[in-house]
Write a structure and sequence with these properties.
single chain; mainly beta; four-stranded antiparallel sheet; globular; disordered N terminus
Length: about 425
């Protein structure tokens, strides 16, 4: 748990949080809806595992209590994109611009596909096709068996988020020109690459645009989609609910800061974090705030995971030159109904940008930093917040999010290595 001295320091440093949000909103007092993941999970075909971005691997066996690395694969560049697992294969994008496909059991390379710039989002798999976006401003549809492209579309902006595929539509955010992307946006030939952003709905068969919604700023958040509505955050300090069929605005929610976090939709509530370090729970139908929680973080760049009882999310803490103490990134669990913090776990890293994966009784996530150093890697915790194990990863650690299938945890590292941990 966070000590009182640190809470005092961070509370003073983050007073602006309360000015922006008007204080924390209380619980709504009822418990409507249900969790969309009701059956045991057998695949992990998209970022966060499903169209609702829950990060919940219900019914999946955890890794062993003392896990080992079963196989690795060394790529030509660092992995910032997260792996997906479907049809016996692992698909993952790399900063070298390559999509890799591996045999999930052995790690044997099945194929590679080259784009023209970095890939930092996750692929999405659906019906034998892998969909992925690149910093080269294109979305690709790739045959999952052959690794050949079936179509490609130039969408006019860098793509850092991941597609969400529902039926014959792929929803994706476009535009990235923050400090992490600026140099690549400035090098792009796309005329709006440095100052615009959109949410696209694309036909999965042809790649043609079903609709486009202009945000006016970057969209690096990955949409959560139910039968009627697309939920997504943007860097214009706004969270959007859009009609899934037409792209028309259903409602907007004033966040008060950028949203890189991808939303989770569960229990008729949308959960996400923002760049001011606040966790939000918003009514999915009305866009009204249910609660907000402040873990006294500098920012939250990763996405939440939601199981039957809790909301789990990592943070990046405040560290300033006038404070002699070093503060480390934490993983938090909040009560999903009230927003009350149930526990926090302090890591040895300065950043927890990895989005967690939660099972019935385990939680897995990565840690990373701005430079190469020791003490970065992958944690396994109990859902009560106790450390079960830690495996160190080289380079800048793990900024991506794990995938868990049948007792195997698939992790991509900034050391350019893909890991299968059992």
């Amino acid at each position: 748990m966070m000590n009182s001295d640190r809470r005092s320091f961070l509370a003073a440093a983050s007073t602006a949080s309360f000015g922006l949000l008007g204080g924390c909103v209380g619980p709504r007092g009822d418990d409507s809806g249900s969790h969309p993941v009701s059956e045991p999970v057998t695949e992990w075909p998209s970022f966060r595992g499903d169209r609702y971005n829950t990060g919940f691997a219900r019914g999946v066996s955890p890794t062993s209590a003392d896990p080992s690395v079963e196989w690795t694969y060394d790529a030509d560049g660092p992995f910032w994109g997260s792996p997906v697992v479907a049809d016996g294969a692992v698909f993952v994008g790399n900063a070298d611009g390559t999509v890799y496909a591996f045999d999930a059991a052995t790690g044997e390379e099945r194929w590679t596909f080259a784009t023209d710039n970095r890939i930092e989002g996750s692929p999405a798999y659906a019906d034998g096709t892998v969909y992925v976006g690149s910093y080269d401003t294109r979305v690709y549809a790739i045959d999952a068996d052959s690794g050949e492209a079936t179509w490609r579309r130039d969408l006019g902006g860098l793509i850092r988020g991941s597609p969400t595929v529902v039926g014959e539509t792929a929803y994706i955010g476009v535009g990235c020109h923050n400090l992490a992307c600026a140099v690549y946006a400035e090098e792009s030939d796309a005329p709006s690459a440095t100052d615009d952003g959109w949410v696209y709905a694309l036909d999965t068969v042809t790649g043609e645009t079903d609709w486009r919604y202009g945000v006016g700023d970057e969209v690096v958040s990955t949409p959560a989609v139910d039968d009627d509505t697309v939920y997504v955050g943007a860097s214009d300090d706004t969270f959007y609910a859009l009609d899934a069929g037409s792209g028309e605005e259903v409602w907007t929610y004033d966040v008060g800061d950028m949203v890189w976090s991808s939303p989770t939709l569960a229990f008729d509530t949308v959960y996400f974090g923002d760049w001011n370090g606040i966790v939000h729970a918003v009514d999915a139908a009305s866009g009204e705030a249910e609660w907000t929680a402040d873990p006294f973080a500098r920012y939250i760049s990763g996405s939440v995971a939601v199981d039957d009882s809790g909301v789990y999310v990592g943070d990046t803490p405040y560290n300033t030159l006038d404070d002699p103490n070093t503060h480390y990134g934490e993983m938090h669990k909040f009560d999903r109904r009230s927003g009350e913090e149930l526990w926090s776990f302090e890591t040895d890293a300065l950043e927890v940008g990895s989005s967690p994966v939660v099972t019935d009784d385990r939680l897995y996530f990565g840690t990373h930093g701005q430079t190469d150093r020791d003490g970065l890697g992958v944690y396994g915790l109990t859902t009560d917040g106790d450390e079960a194990w830690f495996i160190e990863v080289g380079g800048r650690g793990v900024g991506s999010s794990p995938a868990l299938v049948d007792g195997t945890l698939y992790v991509s590292g900034t050391d350019g290595r893909m890991y299968a941990i059992e």
